[in-house]
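Here is one chain, start to finish.
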Amino acid sequence: MVQGASILRIETYGTAMTNEVNVAFIIGTGRCGTSLLSQMLNSHSEICVPPELQLIFEYDGNGNRLLEEFTNCGPGGIGADELSSVIERCCPHKLELFFDYKGYCHRDGVPRKSLSGFVSDFYESIAKSYGKSWLIEQTPWYGQRIDILTSLFPSARFIHMVRDGRDVALSFARTPWWYRSVHLNLTRWQREIKKISVDAAMYLNEDSYLEVKYENLVNNTELEVRRICDFLGVDFEVSTLNPECFTEYDNYSRIDVKHISSNEYVEWKKNKNSAVFPDNVQAWKKVSELFSGVLPKEVSDALCRYGYACGGEDKAGDSESQRDYEYSVKNYINSLESKIDCLRQHIEELEQVIADQTTHIHNVEADWIARGQHIEELEQVIADQTTHIRNLETDWKARGQHIVELEQVIADQTTHIRNLEADWKARGQHIVELELECTKIRRSLYGKIQTTIQKFRNS
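Its structure:
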């Protein structure tokens, strides 16, 4: 086992193995020789270097990667189809020609709930499919987030490919990825290489970080490859210098790389008489008029920090202890102390504001609790009033029913009275008739009595 390497347990799809997989990253600014080094190392019997993957995290607005997808997924993790889709969408190469990632994503036991679990197992599976003990990822811009990589692989090793920024600027001018302007590209090179240098010093130690200059790799190929093998803890193999053993990554690319490759590279591909092609070293001197003006200080400092001559001054002989001030993490941290003091004071002020806000919140909470108690009391009053109203409604309903019954009784009494009135009226009429009849009888009797009396008197 290589001491200090990120260890992953290897097992086949159905049978356990005793090998171990170590993880490393080749990082840089891009167009700095990472692909060439990857071809060399992939030809080693212990090292697997897939085509550039670009899968772990989003960078420079290039869309969600695995980090963002796992961050946004639910507790159930990411499904096999979705994982496969993310890899297909993000990887700029036809990875299925190098590794059956679709079959891998759909097999049982694949970690789908965490990024660290998935990428560890994914790298392990790629390496073991070739029977190798090292998996080296060669996505250059991973160097811009060493913090993420070290959190996923705390013991991973990093090979930083460095190339003269002027050559990098010219190379990127042929691509659609940076700028057409070599000066804008040179400024971006300075920013990115400084970020790598500062972060490497902050997150890595000398056992896990190695700088390799592209010019040294080209001019002293075997010496540099041996140095890299020593860094990884593997034996040097001559296959790493044999271009016939190199993997042709261009065959995996989803885009046509012919129009973005230098003439020197195209010519080298045709013949491959050697492991490297030195014709593009210091290619910027062929168009030196592009860099004839005074370079920005930060750019010239960066060139000098890595030993590249600039501005008529050659600082290539500077020792590692004489690195530029801006690239020293200790000095970089010291320059931040005043800012930290200001931030500390600002934090104290914010803490006081938070304390005041907390007191205010407590007062508001107490007020809301009192209001809640009052609301509960009002709710009880409303409940009692509702019960009283329901009782009143029941009483009024009963009274209404009684009124209806009384109205019926009154109606019946009225009808009875009317019948009595009609009967009394009939009786009154009968009485009048009887009185008339009695009057007639009385008169008749009176007349008869008078006649009888008269007859009696006359007799």
